[in-house]
Write a structure and sequence with these properties.
The chain is α+β, with helices and mostly antiparallel strands and 138 residues long. The protein contains three helices and five strands. The chain has helices at 4-9, 54-74, 126-136, and strands spanning 17-20, 24-28, 38-42, 79-83, 99-104. Bound molecules: guanosine-5'-monophosphate (5GP). Guanosine-5'-monophosphate is lined by residues 4, 13, 15, 27-31, 39, 85, 91-94.
């Protein structure tokens, strides 16, 4: 079954387009965490960031960067959050790779917050952890 973004890409569901080329589509997020919140996605279906080929991923992030620059240049954003969720555990709700570009006007405004709370690392062997990740890189 097609996911909702495939349906948008195929024109079966309306969207508000910000950018389009042969490979990439960017649309306003229906939820608008802040004014201008945009989703950038490949037209070809990939489940998420981790399963998207590098060439396609680079094209998506290139567009995300240019949209972020436009948010600062013409929307007056003072900053931008750029993020992608991978998997339900990370909050991904649409299984089609997409990057959120969220303009920020003042700290803490709108419906978007990022909070990274430091955890107690005393029981974690950090060098060993780094080595485990390093050895997993292909
Ligand atoms: P995720 O949670 O997968 O990282 O983000 C999915 C995003 O897609 C959400 O922010 C949600 O508001 C947005 N979204 C879901 N359905 C639609 C839709 O039909 N149109 C648009 N423009 N955005 C959608």
């Amino acid at each position: 079954m097609k996911d909702i973004f495939c349906k948008i890409i195929d024109g079966e569901i309306p969207s508000t387009k910000v950018y389009e080329d042969d490979d990439v589509l960017a649309i306003l997020d229906i939820s608008q965490a802040t004014k201008g919140h945009t989703l950038v996605m490949p037209k070809k279906h990939y489940q998420d960031f981790l399963s998207t080929p590098a060439e396609t991923m680079h094209k998506v992030y290139d567009v995300a960067q240019r949209i972020g620059q436009a948010m600062v240049g013409v929307l007056g954003a003072k900053g931008v959050n750029v993020l992608t969720n991978v998997g339900e555990a990370a909050g991904q709700s649409v299984p089609h790779f997409h990057v959120h570009v969220i303009p920020r006007y003042t700290r803490g405004e709108g419906g978007f917050q990022i909070s990274m709370k430091a955890q107690d690392t005393s029981s974690i062997d950090l060098p060993r952890l780094a080595l485990t990740i390093k050895e997993g890189i292909k």
